[in-house]
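Thread: iron/sulfur cluster complex, take 2
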Amino acid sequence: MDNLESQITWANKPGNRTAQAHTSTTVAQAVSPQAAQRWSVAQIEALFALPFNDLMFQAQTVHRQHFDANAVQRSTLLSIKTGGCPEDCAYCPQSAKYDTGVDAEKLMPLQDVLQAAQAAKDQGASRFCMGAAWRSPKDHQLEQVAKMVSEVKKLGLETCVTLGMLQARQAAALRDAGLDYYNHNLDTSPEFYGDIISTRTYQDRLDTLERVRDAGIKVCCGGIVGMGETQTNRAELIAQLDQYGRTPGIGAHQQPGSRRRHTAGQPPRA
Ligand code: SF4
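Output below.
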């Protein structure tokens, strides 16, 4: 794997739609076979078994070969369309399938988004991420988001969106609007996927990732731990991210009312 980026994501409490978050910590190749060689599940499980300080030392060693050791890239996340999602992700309070106390809202007006983006920039963010609780955007919705992307770019911020599954023409439209990153998580391992989501397949996720990458947009991709998966499932997820992802993010979440309880307290991105 090229690197492993952990994310603390998504403050979406009522009255607080933005989160100054996303501290990026590269964990990385503690024991590198060959640069181009992919990691096997067994190799990843061997990493899990390392003493913590050994793992941290090796991770820091690799991190410093590729990144400024003490630099932190800051992003702010904004939920531009909250709740009412038709998907049944077991960890998510925004799913309409669960009674979580999260109401369905409409897409935020452009001016409100720009106000939040300017505030994020004033507070030190260099990237602004916009998330919508959709299975996949309709074309007229995508048009509205593309406008948000181009206007946020004009403020001098990098842009990221997470909108669910995309068609190739939609990825191209976002690229043309100036989108820098698309977030689309793998959620968990292929082997555990059916325990967490029934309304889409693993292949659906991979297909969207390919379309985003083919459009020339940078991919932000990760998964979630703490949903009842085994250590081997976690290694399988990382192996998938190694195979398909470039900057995987691992989150841990806990939401009352959703089917799965996790460990951190913020709704995930679509
Ligand atoms: S994680 Fe995303 S796709 Fe899944 S229910 Fe929540 S908002 Fe919908």
